[in-house]
């Protein structure tokens, strides 16, 4: 089906990229019109508004959505798609015009960040379908949360909780948040269950990955493949502050996974039990979704997007 033979719903997060989405929207709108897109659009007005906008779009029989924003906006659009039951999630196709702080998810799929090129990618009409992770928070009655890139608990969640204050620094906000968090975060005890195996340790962070990049370009898992039906898991054990500082470069080049204090695993499900419920933030795609322990399971090849 041609990209121009359908009707599109465009969701714009005006705060993405430190306000760049709002500034660039008139140009994006003009380019969509010039390229013949038939579309309606809406701006998000509050956190997680994208979820409601997606539900309404699907209720109105839209099956093609364009995200104008960053990783957080896409995360909420994915949650909107996965939490509705009017249409199979796989039948909703998403195009991405990346305007965010980190733009991490698009790096894995080599979706361009230039507006013209991103629109060309959608026009080309090639659709890929990747795995999605489902998180259920332990000891809490909240609804499941879905993620398309990477989730984790511990130091990465602690940093994600701080990063919003430094968004004006762009991708450097993640590195700055990590350096600030380094001096106040304390390693935590956890029991990680993967199949019949249990890992009980003091940990810096526990990461559950689908795609390659997170935190503004960091590579924290060994061999992620968003199409293989498995999570790529990294358990960073009791690294101290000096070891973290020494390994900062390895967080970006992917070599951190070869540290002797990092355990790497492939699995379709993981359970994480922790005692320090209140102080341990869980992040999914860079968004804080709760605290404490969780269970994550994979849903194979369910998220369709233009690549």
Helix content bin: 25-40%
Report the average pLDDT across residues.
91
CATH architecture designation of the largest domain: Sandwich
Radius of gyration: 19 Å
Category by helix and strand content:
alpha+beta
Largest sheet: 15 strands, mixed
SSE order: EHEHEHEHHEEEHHEEEHHEEEEE
Count up the helices.
9
Q: What's the CATH topology name of the largest domain?
A: Tumour Suppressor Smad4
How many domains? The number is: 2
- Taking pLDDT < 50 over at least 5 consecutive residues as the criterion, the unreliable ranges are none
In the CATH scheme, the class of the largest domain would be Mainly Beta
How many extended strands? 15
Shape field: globular
Distance between the amino and carboxyl termini: 15 Å
Strand content: 25-35%
Describe the protein.
This protein is α+β, with helices and mostly antiparallel strands and 307 residues long. It has 2 domains: 7-125, Probable inorganic polyphosphate/atp-NAD kinase, domain 1 (Rossmann fold, 3-Layer(aba) Sandwich); 133-300, Tumour Suppressor Smad4 (Sandwich), CATH 2.60.200. It is 29% helix and 34% strand. The chain contains 9 helices and 15 strands. Helix 2 (49-59) packs across helix 3 (71-82). The longest helix is centred in the first third of the chain and has 19 residues, at 16-34. It is globular, with a radius of gyration of 19 Å.
